[in-house]
Write a structure and sequence with these properties.
Elements (H helix, E strand, L loop, with lengths): L15 E3 L10 E6 L9 H15 L7 E5 L3 H13 L2 E7 L4 H9 L3 E5 L11 H11 L3 E2 L8 H17 L6 E5 L4 H13 L5 E7 L33 E5 L1 H15 L5 H16 L5 E6 L13 H6 L17
Parallel strand pairs: 2-10, 3-4, 3-6, 4-5, 7-8, 7-10, 8-9
Antiparallel strand pairs: 1-2
Helix pairs in contact: 1-2, 1-5, 5-6, 7-8
The structure holds 4'-deoxy-4'-aminopyridoxal-5'-phosphate (PMP).
GO molecular function: cystathionine beta-synthase activity; transferase activity, transferring alkyl or aryl (other than methyl) groups
Family: Belongs to the cysteine synthase/cystathionine beta-synthase family.
Keywords: CBS domain, Lyase, Pyridoxal phosphate
């Protein structure tokens, strides 16, 4: 019988899919690494299983223990899936800008979720960083994976995402583009691709306008899961050749185009990464092979990015038809 004993076995090994429509004009190939094929629906499954394996091995996570983590949803889903298989309790802490649907998903997997205000400084006692620290200290047998500092986060991408991209492109990848949140994806996969290619692969970060990675001050933006107002340990500043800033509007308009034109129903950070990838592809020659990582699916954003009223309220849509004005993103 062709049976998998656990969903955990199915994490990683996601497909690479050619973008054909939104690339009009670019001579380079643009290939999307579609991470919603992971069982938890996002790239974060990779780090979840790796961080838990390492914590079990070191004794930091004991049988029956509780996993406490500040997460915008995707890391929580990955952790919840592995936790369910292995009998751990999960308590997640989310900022209130996270879509309601994503929080409901975490609860559906059996996790407990604490929601905190977005509009406070990271060192404020109500910030989601502070609240998760407090819970991790108070709950007995609690373990905090700390995806912003855990070296297993970038390591999981060094050992899975990077090698997969190299193998799938048969070593022909020339550019790797990914959004930067914790920095785990770009630092781990980027380092691997640089090493294996002898420095030939260019690594390009995509960042929301306002975030520190692209020189911003940490001012608010609406794209979820990427950008920072602090510099986490998981981001290796030596890996990116360039970091491109992308506006909320361009990110969301491209996200809608990906659903309509490429049948890729994906999240806002995917639109952001694709805008950056298309800028790279526009400058690159015909032999370039640009791989862009799409971190998650779009179903968690139906009430925001895919909702005309929400988009209009923020001024992201123009025209009376209520449709995104396409073609002007780049
Ligand atoms: N997009 C989304 C939707 C995410 O949840 C994350 C993870 N925070 C990222 C992009 C960025 O990935 P990383 O943390 O590896 O930089």
């Amino acid at each position: 019988m062709q049976v998998h004993d656990s969903l955990v076995e199915l994490m990683g090994n996601t497909p690479l899919v050619r973008l054909r429509k939104v690339t009009a004009g670019a001579r380079a190939q643009v290939l999307a690494k579609v991470e919603y094929f992971n069982p938890g629906g996002s790239v974060k499954d990779r780090i979840a299983v790796r961080m838990i394996d390492a914590a079990e091995a070191s004794g930091a996570l004991r049988p029956g223990g509780t996993i406490v983590e500040p997460t915008s949803g995707n890391t929580g889903v990955g952790l919840a899936i592995v936790a369910q298989e292995r009998g751990y309790r999960c308590v997640f802490v989310c900022p209130d800008k996270v879509a309601r649907d994503k929080i409901d998903v975490l609860r559906a997997y059996g996790a407990e979720v604490v929601v905190c205000p977005t509009a406070v400084a990271p060192d404020h006692p109500d910030s989601y960083y502070s609240v998760s620290d407090r819970l991790a200290a108070e709950i007995p047998d609690a373990w905090k994976p700390d995806q912003y500092a855990n070296p297993e986060n970038p390591r999981s991408h060094y050992e899975s995402t990077g090698p997969e991209i190299w193998a799938q492109t048969e070593g022909q990848v020339t550019h790797f583009v990914a959004g930067i949140g914790t920095g785990g994806t770009i630092s781990g996969a980027g380092r691997y691709l640089k090493e294996v290619s002898g420095g030939r692969v260019q690594v390009i970060g995509a960042d929301p306008e306002g975030s520190v990675y692209s020189g911003g001050t940490g001012r608010p933006y609406l794209v979820e899961g990427v950008g920072e107002d602090i510099w986490p340990d998981t981001y290796d500043r030596d890996i990116c050749d360039r970091v491109l800033a992308v506006s909320d509007r361009d990110s969301f308009v491209m996200t809608r185009r990906l659903a309509r034109e490429e049948a890729l129903l994906v999240g806002g950070s995917c639109g952001m990464a694709v805008v950056a990838a298309l800028r790279v592809a526009a400058e690159a020659g015909p032999d370039a092979v640009v791989v862009v990582l799409l971190p998650d699916g779009g179903r968690g954003y139906l009430s925001k990015i895919f909702n005309d009223e929400w988009m209009t309220d923020y001024g992201f849509l123009r025209g009376s038809s209520g449709e995104a004005v396409v073609g002007d993103v780049l």
